[in-house]
Design goal:
By secondary structure, the chain is an alpha+beta fold. It has 5 domains: 4-171, 3-Layer(aba) Sandwich (Rossmann fold); 183-263, Beta Barrel (Elongation Factor Tu (Ef-tu), domain 3); 273-378, Beta Barrel (Elongation Factor Tu (Ef-tu), domain 3); 380-509, Winged helix-like DNA-binding domain superfamily/Winged helix DNA-binding domain (Arc Repressor Mutant, subunit A, Orthogonal Bundle), CATH 1.10.10.10; 515-633, Arc Repressor Mutant, subunit A, CATH 1.10.10.10. 34% of the residues lie in helices and 30% in strands. It is built from 18 helices and 33 strands. A hairpin with a 2-residue loop joins strand 18 and strand 19. Helix 17 crosses helix 18. The longest helix is centred in the last third of the chain and has 21 residues, at 436-456. The chain is elongated, with a radius of gyration of 33 Å. Translation factor necessary for the incorporation of selenocysteine into proteins. It probably replaces EF-Tu for the insertion of selenocysteine directed by the UGA codon. SelB binds GTP and GDP. It is found in: Cytoplasm. Keywords: Cytoplasm, Elongation factor, GTP-binding, Nucleotide-binding, Protein biosynthesis. Residues 3-175 form the Tr-type G domain.
Length: 634
């Protein structure tokens, strides 16, 4: 089965047992800071791995519960697929619990498990009252049908039941698709002695590979993924749904902060003005006036700004979705559809949350005309909807596009046709449609992979095409890779050589590091003619590693700079061709072993394997005790 990756959040009021429950599930202590251990509360985000089945991998995020640490809580739950709402049996629903539920809903999180902790502290009657109260409080929320699990983290009661419930919930949860551009909002930055800068976060989308070139936005700093760890284990890749720590080269710790975003593409938009659809919280709050200072939480960013209305001068609690604009004091990185939370900085309170309609908002007039324009954008143009679908799923046929966009066939076909003309979309024969920018990214990935391969294996003619496709197929579908390779061949940027592919201008050559030493060995092989030593003897007392010896041997044979005379012996190309031409010139159409020995003056030890080599290469063909020359080879 395909491996599936999820992130689960532990939410709830302070001291209701989130950290203890995380430890009971994973055997990992997520409180790391001295203050956390001394005070018994979580200040920063804590993470732990939970492996439910062989193909299901879960990261648990233990988010802070204290009101003062809500900003860390928002950053922690922004990328989760399922929340475990922890409520202590001896206290029940508390104000912080309710705020967490509001934030979770506003962030678009729909799946929840209610874990009633510390059940050993209450009797059955009290436990029943707490359960009824929680159910009543969750009525009218998206969590009203959430399953309940009763447990005690210290004794282990209910822990296995919770694991089974998590497995059941995740089985019907759509896991994050790894296709598309890589994006990781950074929530932790630190330095490791001898390693340099390390960033942590939840991979929102795409896949990152070790040694890949990346960009830190909004500053646009170019970096390289020197090392990747997933829960302290080094990996070659990290993909959507996983928690990852990435060791970056090319950047100082002081150049990165929490809220920055690590990406692999320049297609991500950096902006300070966003048009949004805002839903207020379900309780009253002090009216929010036009241009009031607010604090925006989106991804792991926490940015001050002002709220701009175009149909009112102040906002109070409402069940309607409010379309408005937020102008920020700092640049952020967002995409259409990203969720956010809006808070008032003073007095501190949550106002609401919603999603980004347009990442690059403009300056609009107050009034109905602007509202109609924004509501039209809220619905999304047909092209917007198609781009959103292809950004997530990379390659879709028309049937799938209609399912994901809800566009009818006529509108879909007209929009695709126009997008083909403007270069937004690209048809993939017999497969569907992709974004032109996706193909451009694949092209860069392929060319970079080939360049790296040539640098590492300069004596090889290229990389096996199937191996190249396989190495990238976890990120992009194979039909799209096949199409991209064909495009690159047609554009003369790469060349096929039998089953291998290489950069168009590349020719196999000796590596710079060992060139002189290898040339000396090749020259000696030529000087020795047929009096050659065993091939391995040429490397005695040389510093050449075994891998380089194997690479050199393959290179000489594939490039025909040498030929294999016997299993343990090579002869130089000059030796072979000189002997072959001399024998051809001094024999008739047919010749035998004695005649060949007379011409070349070689011992039987060398003569027989040389004649067999001629047969093997198709220069001659044996017929009983004689051989004859193949006319098309001479």
């Amino acid at each position: 089965m395909e491996k599936r990756y999820f992130t689960i959040g532990m939410a709830g009021h302070i001291d209701h047992g989130k950290t203890s429950l995380t430890k009971a599930l994973t055997n990992v202590e997520t409180d790391r800071l001295k203050e956390e251990k001394e005070r018994g509360i979580s200040i920063e985000l804590g993470y732990a791995p939970l492996i439910l089945k062989e193909e299901v991998f879960v990261s648990i995020v233990d988010v802070p519960g204290h009101e003062r640490f809500v900003r860390q809580m928002i950053a922690g739950v922004a990328g989760i697929d399922l929340v475990v709402l922890v409520v202590a049996a001896d206290e029940g629903i508390m104000p912080q619990t309710e705020e967490h539920v509001e934030i979770l809903q506003l962030l678009g999180i729909e799946r929840c498990i209610v874990a009633i902790s510390k059940i050993d502290r209450v009797d059955d009657v009290m436990l029943e009252l707490v359960i009824d109260d929680i159910k009543e409080r969750l009525t009218e929320t998206v969590f009203q049908y959430a399953p309940f699990v009763l447990l005690d983290s210290l004794s282990g009661t209910g822990i296995e039941e919770l694991k089974q419930t998590i497995s059941s919930e995740l089985a019907s949860t759509q896991f994050r698709d790894a296709f598309g551009s890589f994006r990781l909002p950074i929530d932790q930055v630190f330095s490791v002695q001898g390693q340099g800068t390390v960033v942590r976060g939840t991979v929102y989308e795409g896949i990152v590979q070790k040694a890949e070139q990346l960009i830190v936005l909004p500053k646009g700093i170019s970096v390289k993924a020197r090392q990747i760890q997933v829960h302290h284990e080094e990996q070659q890749t990290a993909r959507a749904g996983q928690r990852a720590a990435i060791n970056l080269s090319g950047v100082e710790r002081s150049d990165i902060k929490r809220g920055d975003v690590l990406v692999d593409s320049k297609h991500f938009l950096v902006t300070d003005t966003i048009d949004v659809a805002l839903q207020t919280i379900g309780r009253s709050f002090a009216a929010l006036k036009q241009r009031t200072t607010i604090k925006l939480h989106i991804g792991t960013s926490e940015v001050m700004g002002k709220i701009i209305f175009f149909d009112r001068n102040e906002l109070t609690q409402t069940t309607d979705e409010v379309v408005c604009q937020i102008r920020l004091d700092e640049k952020i990185v967002v995409r259409r559809g990203d969720r956010f939370i809006l808070r008032r900085p003073s007095p501190v309170e949550t106002i609401g949350g919603g999603w980004v309609i347009q990442p690059n908002g403009g300056k609009y007039r107050f009034g109905q005309e602007t509202m109609e324009m924004l509501r039209y954008l809220q619905q999304g143009t047909p092209e917007d909807l198609i781009i959103d679908a292809l950004s997530k799923f990379v390659l879709l046929d028309n049937k799938k596009l209609m399912q994901y966009t809800s566009l009818d066939e006529t509108v879909l076909n007209e929009t695709l046709a126009e997008g083909m003309k403007t270069g937004v979309f690209q048809t993939i024969p017999r497969q569907g449609v992709s974004l032109t920018k996706t193909l451009a990214k694949i092209k860069t990935v392929i060319l970079t992979r080939l360049q790296e391969f040539h640098e590492e294996f300069s004596m090889r003619i290229g990389i096996d095409k199937a191996e190249l496709i396989q190495s990238i197929s976890s990120t992009y579908p194979k039909p799209l890779l096949e199409f991209s390779l064909k495009l690159l061949v047609d554009q003369n940027e790469i060349k096929p050589v039998t089953q291998f592919v290489s950069l168009a201008l590349f020719d196999p050559h000796l590596p710079k590091k060992w060139r002189n030493r290898m040339e000396q060995i090749i020259d000696q092989l030529e000087k020795d003619a047929f009096q050659v030593e065993k091939w391995q003897d040429y490397f005695i007392n040389t510093p050449l590693p075994k891998l380089e010896i194997a690479e050199l041997t393959a290179y000489l044979l594939e490039s025909k700079r040498a030929y294999q005379l016997r299993e343990d012996t090579l002869i130089h190309q000059v030796t072979f061709e000189k002997a072959m031409h001399q024998l051809r010139d001094e024999t008739d159409a047919f010749f035998d072993l004695k005649k060949a020995k007379d011409v070349l003056n070689l011992s039987r030890k060398h003569m027989i394997p040389f004649l067999e080599l001629l047969d093997q290469l198709g220069y001659t063909k044996r017929q009983e005790n004689q051989r004859y020359w193949m006319e098309d080879k001479t």
